[in-house]
Amino acid sequence: MSQNRDAASSAPQVGPWVLDTREIGHRAGSSRSYTRDAPAPAGFGLDMIGVPEGAPVELDLLAESVVEGVLISGTAAADLAGECSRCLDPISEEIEIELRELYAFPDSTTDATTDEDEVSRVVDELIDLEPAVRDAMLLEMPTSPVCSEDCQGLCTGCGVKWAELSPDHTHETMDPRWAALRERFGGNEEEN
Ligand SMILES: [Zn+2]
Ligand SMILES: [Zn+2]
Question: For 16, left (φ over 0), alpha (ψ -120 to 50), or beta?
C-alpha cells in the first residue's frame, strides 16, 4: 500500500516551526501561547553572519484567533555566528526580533482580496512560522558585521590584522631604480 498524500500535499510538515490552529480554536478571541525552540534550517542568515544550521531559535509567541485568521505576535531570538567583514575574526552576537503576522484562513475575505506574498495563509489548518521569522531576522542581521566598531581590518599589503601591527607599519612600493640607490646608500642612512 502506498501513501502518496503527504508527498502531494503542500501543507507544512508538522514540527517545531509549525502550529496547528485546531489547538488554538477558530472562535475569534481564543488564544494560546507557545514557548519553544525550533532548529534553524540551512540558509538562516546572510553571507557573513547567520544562525548556524540546527541551532535553536527561541520562539515566545501568542497565537490569537481573529475573524480573518490567526494573529501571531511575540519574539524570536537566536545566537548568531559569523565573521568580521573587516578582519575576518569569528564573531558571535544575539538577535531578537518582534513578530506580528496575520495568517489568513482559506475562506476569509483577506484570503479572497490579498496575495499570498502580502498576507501569510493558514494551510490545511497549519501555520508555518519559519518563513516570517527568517524574513524578520534577515532584515535585522548586519550585512557587514564587525567585531568592533573601531576594527581597523587587515593591512592590504600583508593581510595581517592592523590590531597586531605597529602604527608605523608600511609596505613601501618603491620604484626599482630608487630601490637600487637605496641599497647602495642605505647603510649611510641608517648611521645618520
Ligand atoms: Zn574585525
Ligand atoms: Zn602589512
Answer: alpha
Q: Which residues surround ligand 2, an ion (CB under 5 A)?
A: 155, 157-158
pTM, 2 dp: 0.78
Over residues 22-62, the pLDDT tens digits come to 999 888 899 999 999 999 999 999 999 999 999 999 999 99
Domain boundaries, the chain: 5-140, 162-191
- Model confidence over 159-191: pLDDT tens digits? 999 999 998 999 877 667 776 776 776 654 444
**Strands, DSSP E only, in the chain?**
18-20, 31-39, 49-50, 56-65, 69-83, 90-104, 120-121, 126-128
Q: Are 145 and 82 in contact (CB under 8 A)?
A: yes
The ligand whose atoms approach the alpha carbon of 83 most closely is: 1
| Ion ligand 1 residues within 5 Å by Cβ | 84, 86-87, 147, 151
